[in-house]
Design a protein that fits this description.
Layout (H helix, E strand, L loop, with lengths): L18 H14 L1 H4 L4 H7 L1 H8 L5 H20 L8 H15 L10
Helix pairs in contact: 1-4, 1-5, 4-5
């Protein structure tokens, strides 16, 4: 059985006040990237509350930057979870996925409409 760790922080939590607008922007981003969002059930993803995590880890940034932080965290979680399937046990396929991602990051990937 899983037991969550308890962290004792010596300071009070500080959260970004614009979590709701950032959560809306993050949801829109997820809808535009359905290949990522389809990696996990929507109800499960909602329970992760990625915008809240972003608000707690980036409490003093602009609202747009908070949405970007949520997008980045969401990408990390969803991309990682994609390898918890059979894909993670297929090194050649993992290499293909990572090669495509690296090409996108370096600007060598397909045009946005051709993905």
């Amino acid at each position: 059985m899983f037991h969550a760790a308890v962290l004792d922080l010596p300071f009070p939590p500080h959260s970004h006040p614009d979590r709701a607008p950032a959560a809306r922007l993050h949801r829109e981003w997820l809808e535009r990237h359905e290949g990522l969002a389809g990696a996990v059930d929507a109800a499960v993803y909602d329970r992760w509350d990625v915008p809240r995590l972003a608000a707690l880890t980036s409490p003093d940034c602009a609202t747009g930057d908070l949405a970007l932080a949520a997008d980045l965290l969401g990408f990390y979680f969803l991309f990682d979870d994609g390898f918890d399937t059979g894909l993670g046990r297929a090194p050649a396929r993992v290499a293909e996925v990572c090669t495509r991602l690296t090409a996108l990051l370096h600007g060598d990937g397909p045009a946005p409409g051709a993905r």
